[in-house]
Structures are given as structure tokens and as C-alpha cells.
């Protein structure tokens, strides 16, 4: 078990701005460089971003909550309990919970700390 890092919280406009700053090329997610142009095929939306998340709870993208719970060999009686177990599992392994506020339904994503550092969302 590693040290748990603090959760990150973005507002919906900050989340949208983050997505706009990202591109994906050859399965690598990275930050756009100002002044460069990127083909539409490299655009990152929540669906593309979901391929880089360890787990997620989103109104826009199906994070396969029950499949993820099964992958970590856990069981739960409700979706809330399932998400709590999934979140704890990944956070205990050094991942970070990124919460988006200002949405009608919960929007929470879990990413590796290394990815968030590379994208400039975590210090260090």
C-alpha cells in the first residue's frame, strides 16, 4: 500500500478546458503545445479519456462499475458501495480521485498519479 494522494476537484468549465488542452496520439495522452495544430482524430473527449482512467463514475461514459468491482475481486450490495470499494482500491495504490463539480450526476475519475503529473495536474 502506498501513501494516498489528495483528491483533485475541477469545476465543469475547468474539466472542459482540460479536455480541450489534451490530445491522444498512438494511445498516448498528452498536452497540446500552443501554436501547434492537431488533427481531429487526436481530439480528446470523455470517451477517449476513459481509456486512460483506472476507473470512473460518469454520466457521459459507462465505467462498467460492476466489471471493475469484479476485476478487483470485491463484492458490493449497491452502486455506492461498489464505487467506494473501487475508489479505495485504486487510491491505496497511489492513484488519484479527480472529481468534477457542477454536474447533475456524480462525475469522478481515478487516474494514475504519473499521468496526472505529466498532464500538469499534480506537482512533483
Write the layout of secondary structure elements.
Elements: E1 8-11, H1 12-21, E2 22-25, E3 28-31, H2 46-50, E4 55-57, H3 65-71, H4 79-91, E5 95-101, E6 108-112, H5 113-118
Parallel strand pairs: 1-5
Antiparallel strand pairs: 2-3, 4-6, 5-6
Helix pairs in contact: 3-4
Verbal overview:
There is one protein chain. By secondary structure, the chain is an alpha+beta fold. It has one domain. It is 33% helix and 22% strand. The strands form two sheets. Strands 1-5-6-4 form a four-stranded mixed sheet. A two-stranded antiparallel ribbon has the order 2-3. The protein is globular, with a radius of gyration of 15 Å.
Order of helices and strands: EHEEHEHHEEH
| Mean pLDDT, all residues | 94
Could you tell me the radius of gyration in angstroms? 15 Å
Number of domains: 1
In DSSP terms, counting alpha (H) and pi (I) runs of 4 or more, how many helices?
5
Distance between the termini: 20 Å
| Number of β-strand runs | 6
* Helix vs. strand class: alpha+beta
- The rough form would be described as globular
Brief synopsis:
By secondary structure, this protein is of the alpha+beta class.
Amino acid at each position: 500500500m502506498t501513501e494516498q494522494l489528495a483528491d483533485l476537484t475541477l469545476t465543469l468549465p475547468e474539466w472542459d478546458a482540460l479536455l480541450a488542452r489534451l490530445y491522444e496520439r498512438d494511445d498516448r495522452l498528452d498536452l497540446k503545445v500552443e501554436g501547434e495544430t492537431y488533427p481531429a482524430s487526436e481530439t480528446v473527449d470523455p470517451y477517449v479519456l476513459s481509456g486512460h482512467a483506472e476507473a470512473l463514475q460518469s454520466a457521459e461514459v459507462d465505467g462498467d462499475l460492476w466489471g471493475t468491482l469484479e476485476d478487483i475481486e470485491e463484492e458490493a450490495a449497491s452502486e455506492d458501495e461498489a464505487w467506494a470499494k473501487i475508489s479505495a482500491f485504486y487510491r491505496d495504490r497511489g492513484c488519484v480521485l479527480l472529481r468534477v463539480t457542477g454536474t447533475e450526476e456524480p462525475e469522478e475519475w481515478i487516474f494514475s498519479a504519473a499521468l496526472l503529473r505529466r498532464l500538469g495536474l499534480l506537482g512533483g
